[in-house]
């Protein structure tokens, strides 16, 4: 990559990182890292999901196990920090897709 291209890429990267949406997302990301119990709960839910599916397929799933899993999952999915983080994550993803689309469209125009 030549220096001009690298400089332009660095400028674009900085512009993206300075976007208020990205800044807000990074704050939530940092806050979430300060709550390892939520991160470990997410891992537990993923693991339990696999166990639930296997037990259900084998006909071994009890109502109590399913209820405990659903309660844990609902607590996680309705936690305000998680709700806001996931909403912001979705918005950031949409924003980055828009940026990528604009770049690709402009590149195609330049090539034609």
UniProtKB/TrEMBL annotation:
Q: Which Pfam families does the protein's record reference?
A: Com_YlbF
In which organism is this protein found?
Catenibacterium mitsuokai
Q: What is this protein called?
A: YlbF family regulator
- The domain of life for this entry's organism is Bacteria
Q: Which InterPro entries match?
A: Com_YlbF (IPR010368), YheA/YmcA-like_dom_sf (IPR023378)
